[in-house]
Amino acid sequence: MEEFDKKRLFWARVTALSTVCILVVVLTISIGAALQFRTMQEDFAVLSDMALEMEELTDNLITVSANLEKIDWEDLAENINLTAEKALISMDAGLTAIDELDIETLNEAIINLRDVIEPLARFFNSFN
């Protein structure tokens, strides 16, 4: 009988040790799952915020798309062409005016103006 009791005691110890090991594993898994669950909750909160922002972004894109559809692109291109043509005409007029400018007469006017202002400048410098 003693041998039977020793085997029984041995298997009781093995069973107890196995039970403790299983409990440690289950406890470790439970703690890990709890921590992971907390992290997942935070991630889902972030994902929820991102989904709301994406929805707002989608609404803005729909509004922009609707506004772009309202634009008359042909009329816009025609207006741009007309503006460019008017600018070209104005530039041609300016260049024509510059070409018609008599440089000699302008130089004479500048010399005459200098001749008039020079004595006045000397007069006013005498007060300094």
Kindly list the characteristics that best describe this protein.
128 residues; mainly alpha; 3 helices; elongated
Low-confidence stretches: none
Q: How far is the first residue's CA from the last residue's CA?
A: 137 Å
Which structural category fits the helices and strands? mainly alpha
Q: How many domain regions? A: 2
Order of helices and strands: HHH
Strand content: under 5%
Shape: elongated
| Mean pLDDT across all amino acids | 90
Number of strands: 0
Rounded to an integer in angstroms, the radius of gyration calculated over CA atoms is 48 Å
Helix content: over 70%
Q: What can be said about the biggest beta sheet?
A: none
Total number of helices: 3
What can you see in these coordinates?
Helices cover 94% and strands 0% of the residues. With 128 residues, the protein is an all-alpha fold. It folds into two domains: 1-70; 72-128. The relative contact order is 0.03. The model has no long low-confidence stretch (mean pLDDT 90).
Q: Concise description?
A:
This protein has helices at 2-70, 73-100, 103-125. The protein is elongated and about 145 Å long. It is built from 3 helices and no strands.
What is the secondary structure topology, with strand pairs?
Layout: H1 2-70, H2 73-100, H3 103-125
